[in-house]
Amino acid sequence: MPLDIHITEIPPPELEFDGPGTFTDPKIGLVQAGPFDGRFGGGRVQLVRVGLVGPPEVVARARRWFERCRGRVASKMDNTVQYPDYPGFTAAFSAELVLDRSWEHVFSGTPNALSLAMNIRQDDLRFERVVEAYAGAIKSLVGPDVMPRPDVVVCCIPKELQAYTVRKSTTKEARAAAEAIRKERSEGQLGLFDEVEVEENEEDLLFRDFRRALKARAMEIGVPIQLGSDHLFLDGDKNQDASTRAWNSTVALYYKAGGIPWRLHSDGPETCFVGISFYHFESTKRKLVRSSIAQAFSSDGDGFALRGENIPWEQQQGRRVNLTRDQSYRLGRDILAEYERRTGGPPRRIVVHKTSRFNAAEREGFTEAFRSVPVQELINIMPTEFRLVRHGLYPPKRGTLCRVNDDATYLFTTGYMPEIETYPGPHIPAPARLVSDDPVDMERAAADIMGLTRMNWNTASITNGQPVTLSFSRKVGGVMSEWLLRNEDEPPSSFRYYM
């Protein structure tokens, strides 16, 4: 049977800012047009107040770094199109970056809460006390007596805590689930998206991660945090260029302080983009379950995360698990309710992404939940071994859409980028296969996905390869898992807590 291959190119996504026009590079857009929430007038972010917590020497380095970010940071990279100068915080965000010694909690003196915690010999107790030391310091900076309070607290992490984990006291079920994941990975059964933090790795079931645990505690306190170490604060041969670090860290600060740096340009109806994934959770009663996670984003770009209902864990489930019709319906209903609460009205279009196929029960449940939404699209973004080879030194362009015999559609979310004159990836780019049982315009679906790769406000980079609807699944699941170790109620939904 002959192959009919049709190739088109999705242009780089256009982003909107405060000023007129659109831009494909957020760094250029911020400098020339200002952040999107400038359109909100008096409701926009004008001050970003930053608190600092940590050992005295690391806090001092953090203070110097953010003071440096108030001004211009020159790029030392050869490709200044990809790595431009950082213009300074006010020039980039039309807002002031505010530091104040009253918003610093330094673990000084001997002993102090952090040093006492670090000297505990019992591994699990030491981990808890270190998290508690930082959480107590954060709480001291945002208490009711602090006015004004910082908008974001940067937790300054010493070298010995940068990759801090502790082995969990796991159940037999958790160990079996971890072994199943390890076996799949060793046998090469895991694909593209497993490498970019969709669902968890076996380590997530066996170890607790300090960063995720601290983010969960900060959610209880009610303040977004950002973790930073010398990899951010200091120049060095093994660190990113200073201008790149300045761009990425301050975009994240601005968003966590309540700002909206940019949004997708769209001529269509108001859209809610949703990513559905699954994660293992151990409840306070030590019962292992699988639960769905919905990461949802409005057309304005602001995001939220919701946890679905629990699915009893069974060893034969493997990595493929589905919701029942009723579970899908209730999760879909909750997504729409949260979207309307945040935006003031329902979406006119809803697009749901998932890395495995929707089964009949999920389709029925989501369709019923979204019956009031005029346009519904359920789209699978699936890993694949498909490859394309083009003439020349570089792989296919980012945004290449390949259709084979009108029944298979492949999208390259990474690849050669003419705007920076290089391919920024380390491996041969692998496309995702797009599948839907709905009458979906795949070119528009591909354009949406490419746009959502630019909606990660943890970075100003234009080289991200995964849509934000799916790329943070593992981090969100990990923070929610930590939350549920201490809390019976549902975690806060704002995406600012999870990034």
Q: Can you count the beta strands?
A: 18
- Trace the largest sheet across and list its strands: 1-16-17-18-15-14-11-12-13
In one word, what is the shape?
Answer: globular
Please give the count of helices: 15
Task: Explain what this protein looks like in three dimensions.
The protein is α/β, with parallel strands linked by helices. Helix content is 32%, strand content 21%. It is built from 15 helices and 18 strands. Strands 1-16-17-18-15-14-11-12-13 form a 9-stranded mixed sheet, with helices on both faces. It has a 4-stranded parallel sheet with strand order 5-4-6-9, with helices on both faces. Strands 3-2-10 form a 3-stranded antiparallel sheet. α5 runs parallel beside α8 and α8 (210-221) packs across α15. The longest helix is centred in the first third of the chain and has 19 residues, at 123-141. Mean pLDDT is 89; it is low at 189-198.
In short:
The chain is of the alpha/beta class. The protein is built from 15 helices and 18 strands.
Which features does this protein show?
499 residues, alpha/beta, nine-stranded mixed β-sheet, four-stranded parallel β-sheet, 21% strand, globular
List the helices and strands and how they pair.
Elements lengths: L4 E5 L5 E2 L5 E2 L2 H8 L13 E8 L1 H14 L19 H5 L2 E11 L6 H6 L4 H19 L10 E5 L8 E3 L4 H15 L15 H5 E3 H12 L3 E4 L1 H4 L8 H15 L6 E2 L6 E12 L5 E10 L5 E10 L12 H19 L5 E6 L5 H10 L5 E8 L17 E5 L3 E4 L20 E4 L6 H11 L15 H4 L1 H14 L13
Parallel strand pairs: 4-5, 4-6, 6-9, 11-14, 14-15
Antiparallel strand pairs: 1-16, 2-3, 2-10, 7-8, 11-12, 12-13, 15-18, 16-17, 17-18
